[in-house]
TrEMBL record:
Regions that span the bilayer: none
A single GO molecular function term of this UniProt record: actin filament binding
InterPro entries to which the protein is assigned, alphabetical: Aldolase-II_Adducin_sf, Aldolase_II/adducin_N, Aldolase_II/adducin_N_sf
Native source species: Cyberlindnera jadinii (strain ATCC 18201 / CBS 1600 / BCRC 20928 / JCM 3617 / NBRC 0987 / NRRL Y-1542)
Pfam families: Aldolase_II
Protein known as: Arad-like aldolase/epimerase
Limits of the Class II aldolase/adducin N-terminal domain: 46-227
Amino acid sequence: MSSTSTTAATTATTQGIHNLVQGQYPYRHKKPEFKDKYDERRWCLEHLAGAFRVFGRKGYAEGSAGHISVRDPVDPETFWINPLGTHFSLMKVSDLVHVDKEGRVIGGNLAAVNAAGFKIHSELHKARPDVNAACHTHSVWGKAYSTFGKPLEMINQDVCIFYKAHSVYENFGGVVLEKEEGINIAKAIGNGKGVILQNHGLLTVGETIDEAAYLFTLMERCCEVQMQVDKINPMFEKKIIDDEEAAYTYHMTSDPETLYTEFQPDYELELELTNGAFLK
């Protein structure tokens, strides 16, 4: 690590977007705080629907597979998830389904939900009280890279957000219809931000929907970059970022507030592209 980086590492002891921005006006994408839990619920549902629209635009939809869940701020023992069979690009707030911790539909849109999806998410939420949102889809690059069953290499700045914060779940047990498989996946992710499910795809978690969704888009892109690099690697020597620099980059860029802000450009783009249609 350079002397400049070493100095920065000793002075930037706190994490947060304040380390990365400066200007005459406050940064407008800071994570909001709520006094009313019902206001927070509405905000969560708007961002959940928006995240699906982003995933749809990025091509993550695959039939009826894929799901994002969020813990309900009003009743934290319950969750909101997408209905089975609605395309990500058509998702609206009014489409979202409220389920209890066993996956029983209790409110919102009373449509059926993906049983396999909730088996994963419910066990994650039980194991990780800090996790309020989880994302999983059958995206192209995530599926492709997952076949190798190996973690991402620290080959650029962006992937350092996953430095010692992602894992590989090697024991693919088919479609997740049993509680045990969900428990095993929750154990595999541990305290990390994401897990590569071998022969299956990617799963990411976060304190907010925005954090989990951004991490998913980032992990998907990192899988793509890794595969492109590996394709031409025999021709060139591959430089791996050393542990000290990777750890510093992780510290500066991986906190929940910073990762929340990273998703806001995509969320605002969906507001513009859809004229806010997903808020209905």
